Give the backbone structure.
Amino acid sequence: GTATVVKNGYPDHTAFDSQDHHYDPKSNPDEPTWYMVDIEILQKFAEPVTRDMLRESETTSGMMVLAKGSRLSIQPVTEDEWKAVHKLAGVKVPR
């Protein structure tokens, strides 16, 4: 699906909680290592757009998310790639 960021980044409080699985003993509230953002869902795809689908599309085959060693959390996407992902999902691009 697609979402939009609705709140700027702020320290991830779970990194300071030793009982949380995101705990990071090297992070502290005065100099946080980890940040988070709040998002709002714009739309949910009926079926996932898979990495194989992205690889098979000429427009999306070069996306950074497909590069070896890239993180899945945050990646830049061009406008053409954005439109192509929505086309693969069979949905309209949200405004």
